[in-house]
Amino acid sequence: MKTPSALPDPLSSTPFTWQEAARAGVSRRRLSHHSLASPSRAVRVPGSGADHSLADMARPLTQVTAFSAASHATAFLLWEFPGFLPGSNEPVIHISRPEPMAIPRRRGVVGHRGQFFDDEITIGADSAPETRLRLALGRAGLPTAEANVRTELSPGVERQPDLSFREWRVAVDYEGEGHSEPEQIVRDIEKQEDFARAGWILVRISKRHMTTDARTAVRKVRRALEHHGWSPI
Predict the structure, then answer these.
(1) Measured CA distances, 197 to 169, 202, 205, 221 (Å)
(2) Are residues 112 and 136 in the same domain?
(3) Are 135 and 120 in contact (CB under 8 A)?
């Protein structure tokens, strides 16, 4: 059997939509090859779905249906809430659309309608923990953070923190479990040194800082902002 052509990055390693594949120049014939799983129409998954995280599997499903977001038991797991929510162990993904739009109906999806709050939605927030952190900072009365903005720290040196307060030269990174890998530790040290040389403070947040409504995380970010001249009105 003929070996299929290689998919371009990042489609070779993460679930994607047909539209994303078309923009990358992938043919319809390649998308029909048996090496790609099809959990739902217009979505393709390289390898087995078990090889990918829930966030990776949910993302294309929110892309193929306009104005939709992961919700209910799926959001419960993505946001790492403590305890157990009925339905969290089911092999489906919950997707909601705002009223009065139609409920999403597709294989592998449980559709819902819900109320979306525009002031709590930011395009560019990469993950649920980062979004939880951003919202907690806002509730605490801190300045509005920008999500995933590339910043030139010095000639030829650019960094893209999870959140940034450019006016006060404070950056915030949420570090998940992958940051304990030796290679990642080296990269994280280099990143912190780049920010420090440019006169920035890089605040590093982990899961343990996010308990009790992220109070410890908020305290760390507040201290950094105040150190660089911010004060509440």
Answers:
(1) 12, 11, 20, 19
(2) no
(3) yes
The CATH code of the domain that includes 200 is 3.40.960
| Domains of the chain: total | 2
Handedness of CA 121, 125, 129, 134 (dihedral sign): negative
Using the 3D structure, point to which of 76, 94, 116 is the last residue of a domain.
116
> Residues 150, 203: one domain?
yes
What DSSP state is assigned to residue 49?
G
The answer as to whether 8 is a domain residue is: no
Q: Which of 89, 116, 143 marks a domain boundary?
A: 116
Q: What does pTM read for this prediction?
A: 0.54
pLDDT (tens digit, 9 = 90+) per residue, 103-160? 989 999 999 987 665 545 544 445 667 778 888 898 899 998 888 888 899 998 999 8
Question: Whose CA is closest to 137, among 69, 72, 224?
Answer: 224
The CA-atom distances, in angstroms, between 142 and each of 145, 150, 153, 166, 217 are 8, 21, 23, 13, 12
Give the pairing of strands 93-98 and 109-114.
parallel
**Residue 11 counted as domain residue:** no
Structural contact between residues 15 and 52, judged by C-beta atoms closer than 8 angstroms: yes
